[in-house]
Amino acid sequence: MTTLDMDFVRQQFPAFAEPSLHDKAFFENAGGSYLCRQVLEKFDQYFHQLKVQPYYPNPVSAKAGEWMDASYQALAPWLNSAPDEIYFGPSTSQNTYVLANAVMGWLQPGDEIVVTNQDHEANSGVWRRLAERGIVVKEWSVNPVNGMLELDTLQPLLTKATKLLTFPHCSNILGHINPVADICALARRHDVRTIVDGVSFAGHGLPDVKALGCDIYLFSLYKVFGPHLGVMVIQSDMASKLANQGHYFNGEFREKRLYPAGPDHAQVAAAKGVADYFAAVYQHHFPDQPEASATQKAEAVRELLHQAELTTLQPLLEFLNQHPAIRIIGPASAAQRAPTVSITVNGVLPADLAKQLGEEGLLCGAGHFYSCRLLEAMDINPAVGVVRFSMVHNSSPAEIERLIATLARLLPA
Predict the structure, then answer these.
(1) What Pfam families does its record include (predicted)?
(2) How many Å apart are CA 214 and CA 318, to the nearest integer?
(3) What does the H/E/C string look like for 142-198?
(4) pTM reported for the whole predicted model
(5) Structure confidence by residue, pLDDT tens digits, 154-172
């Protein structure tokens, strides 16, 4: 089996060569990842050469538009979607606000939607507010012991009036990966549309959206080594149900219908760098398989990233599991989870531990991470929160060893 070449990968991220960061280990990828050089180079070229209004009939403007168009084309194969199913927006939080308005061209008072209390608030609060507009909102609640969403508690919530189900691909606190395809299949049998928040999953390998079977898939490019944009992958028949949220005269332009403020041209153009990075990873690791299909290339890269993440996740979980003062919030094993690991420590405030680790050059986060409802359901005070270590494939085994050694020193058994 081919394994990830960590030296090659880390060379693609300028932050790892930045002198001011040389003694720092980054464990807050779930909040936003380092940018790959392919994205930074796109930004640099765009701002130097193409910082004009795109799509006007002159060579420079036309080229700026071509660069923007290329991002849709380049990202599509890594998502197993069509380019015209991809929509950009300022962030996933803002995209959900736009979607919550757009669905009101389809939903009617009395229709039901189902939300969860496992989500980041971006994919929960906006949908709950539709109750103010006559929509019946139901909650698919987590198991309060382990924070999991269980299929047998979803089934009773789905009725003939249910139109929409929103839920996360992966919790940004638990790290557990929900069985999205199974959930979407159940919803589809009840003629219920699905919106999946993939923000906490996509940084671990862009998913095959078609295989998931959802109607809308959301993620944030700045957590996938790219610019600060949100991405929506919307199936065409679902897109037809969404009301135009742009200026009335832009309703016929697909790219503008769900982007009310107008796009950030440079960021859209730089988004292609994310696809270029994944292509570089594939070419480096599989130079003798250039004729593989786009689907095969995407799957090969996903597997590379997954195996690399397991290498770092497993020893960290083993250490945390054996420490008597530490509680892992989420699955204790590496099965069906992303390398996003949240903990509480007896007698230690999360913010204090994060500060201590930061002083040691280990950069992690503490707080509720916008998942207050989940913490409340699990009887954890959101104002106190948890400590979170979130790795991706470019996190090295040496960094994990350093984290474990530091925790062992700061938190003696």
Answers:
(1) Aminotran_5
(2) 34
(3) CCCCCCCCCHHHHHHHCCCCEEEEEEECECCCCCEECCHHHHHHHHHHCCCEEEEEC
(4) 0.97
(5) 999 999 999 999 999 999 9
